[in-house]
Amino acid sequence: MPMTYRVDGERHLVLVALTGIVTLEEIAAVLEGNRGLPLDDRWRELVDVSEMTELAASGTHLQQLAQVATAPRFGRVAIIAPNPLTFGLARMYALSAGAENVQVFHELADAETWLQATAS
Fold it and tell me: How far apart are CA 94 and CA 88, in angstroms?
Protein backbone atom coordinates (compact mmCIF):
# COMPACT_ATOMS: atom_id res chain seq x y z
CA MET A 1 0.00 0.00 0.00
CA PRO A 2 1.47 3.36 -0.97
CA MET A 3 0.28 5.11 2.18
CA THR A 4 1.12 4.87 5.86
CA TYR A 5 -0.87 6.77 8.47
CA ARG A 6 0.11 6.90 12.12
CA VAL A 7 -1.27 8.96 14.99
CA ASP A 8 1.05 9.82 17.87
CA GLY A 9 -1.41 10.98 20.53
CA GLU A 10 1.28 11.77 23.06
CA ARG A 11 2.96 14.28 20.73
CA HIS A 12 -0.31 15.40 19.06
CA LEU A 13 1.22 14.48 15.71
CA VAL A 14 -0.17 12.71 12.64
CA LEU A 15 2.50 11.13 10.44
CA VAL A 16 1.60 10.34 6.83
CA ALA A 17 3.86 8.92 4.12
CA LEU A 18 2.72 8.59 0.51
CA THR A 19 4.87 6.45 -1.80
CA GLY A 20 4.79 5.30 -5.40
CA ILE A 21 1.71 6.12 -7.44
CA VAL A 22 -0.78 7.90 -5.19
CA THR A 23 -4.46 8.03 -6.08
CA LEU A 24 -7.20 10.44 -5.17
CA GLU A 25 -8.74 7.70 -3.03
CA GLU A 26 -5.58 7.43 -0.93
CA ILE A 27 -5.50 11.16 -0.32
CA ALA A 28 -9.18 11.00 0.61
CA ALA A 29 -8.33 8.19 3.07
CA VAL A 30 -5.84 10.49 4.81
CA LEU A 31 -8.51 13.16 5.11
CA GLU A 32 -11.01 10.60 6.40
CA GLY A 33 -8.55 9.43 9.05
CA ASN A 34 -8.07 13.02 10.16
CA ARG A 35 -11.80 13.44 10.76
CA GLY A 36 -11.57 11.08 13.71
CA LEU A 37 -9.23 13.47 15.52
CA PRO A 38 -10.47 16.22 17.83
CA LEU A 39 -10.65 19.81 16.59
CA ASP A 40 -7.60 21.04 18.44
CA ASP A 41 -4.86 23.31 17.16
CA ARG A 42 -2.26 21.42 19.23
CA TRP A 43 -2.47 18.66 16.59
CA ARG A 44 0.10 18.85 13.82
CA GLU A 45 0.48 16.79 10.67
CA LEU A 46 3.65 15.77 8.86
CA VAL A 47 3.05 14.52 5.31
CA ASP A 48 6.03 12.99 3.53
CA VAL A 49 5.72 12.70 -0.26
CA SER A 50 9.44 12.28 -0.93
CA GLU A 51 8.90 8.73 -2.22
CA MET A 52 5.80 9.56 -4.29
CA THR A 53 6.46 8.97 -7.99
CA GLU A 54 3.12 9.99 -9.46
CA LEU A 55 -0.14 11.61 -8.44
CA ALA A 56 -3.07 10.01 -10.23
CA ALA A 57 -5.32 13.05 -9.81
CA SER A 58 -5.82 16.30 -11.65
CA GLY A 59 -4.97 19.77 -10.37
CA THR A 60 -8.69 20.45 -10.03
CA HIS A 61 -9.11 17.41 -7.78
CA LEU A 62 -6.18 18.57 -5.68
CA GLN A 63 -7.73 22.02 -5.27
CA GLN A 64 -11.06 20.50 -4.21
CA LEU A 65 -9.33 18.27 -1.65
CA ALA A 66 -7.37 21.22 -0.29
CA GLN A 67 -10.55 23.18 0.33
CA VAL A 68 -12.07 20.26 2.24
CA ALA A 69 -8.86 19.57 4.16
CA THR A 70 -8.41 23.04 5.58
CA ALA A 71 -10.97 22.74 8.31
CA PRO A 72 -9.24 24.00 11.48
CA ARG A 73 -8.31 20.50 12.61
CA PHE A 74 -4.56 21.07 12.84
CA GLY A 75 -2.40 23.85 14.14
CA ARG A 76 0.12 23.21 11.36
CA VAL A 77 0.56 20.87 8.40
CA ALA A 78 4.06 20.35 6.99
CA ILE A 79 4.55 18.61 3.66
CA ILE A 80 7.99 17.23 2.79
CA ALA A 81 8.57 17.23 -0.97
CA PRO A 82 12.25 17.21 -1.95
CA ASN A 83 11.91 16.81 -5.72
CA PRO A 84 10.68 19.62 -7.98
CA LEU A 85 7.57 17.84 -9.29
CA THR A 86 6.15 16.82 -5.92
CA PHE A 87 7.20 20.15 -4.41
CA GLY A 88 5.20 21.97 -7.10
CA LEU A 89 2.15 19.76 -6.56
CA ALA A 90 2.39 20.22 -2.80
CA ARG A 91 2.71 24.01 -3.18
CA MET A 92 -0.37 24.01 -5.41
CA TYR A 93 -2.20 22.07 -2.70
CA ALA A 94 -1.01 24.49 0.03
CA LEU A 95 -2.00 27.55 -2.02
CA SER A 96 -5.40 26.03 -2.80
CA ALA A 97 -5.89 25.41 0.90
CA GLY A 98 -5.48 29.14 1.41
CA ALA A 99 -4.21 28.59 4.92
CA GLU A 100 -0.97 29.84 6.46
CA ASN A 101 -0.82 26.70 8.56
CA VAL A 102 0.07 24.53 5.52
CA GLN A 103 3.71 24.78 4.39
CA VAL A 104 5.87 22.78 1.99
CA PHE A 105 9.51 21.93 2.67
CA HIS A 106 12.37 20.28 0.79
CA GLU A 107 13.95 18.90 3.97
CA LEU A 108 12.53 16.88 6.87
CA ALA A 109 14.55 18.87 9.43
CA ASP A 110 13.03 22.15 8.26
CA ALA A 111 9.52 20.71 8.41
CA GLU A 112 10.06 19.36 11.92
CA THR A 113 11.49 22.67 13.13
CA TRP A 114 8.48 24.55 11.78
CA LEU A 115 6.03 22.06 13.34
CA GLN A 116 7.81 22.22 16.70
CA ALA A 117 7.53 26.02 16.75
CA THR A 118 3.95 25.69 18.00
CA ALA A 119 4.08 22.35 19.79
CA SER A 120 2.81 22.45 23.36
Answer: 10
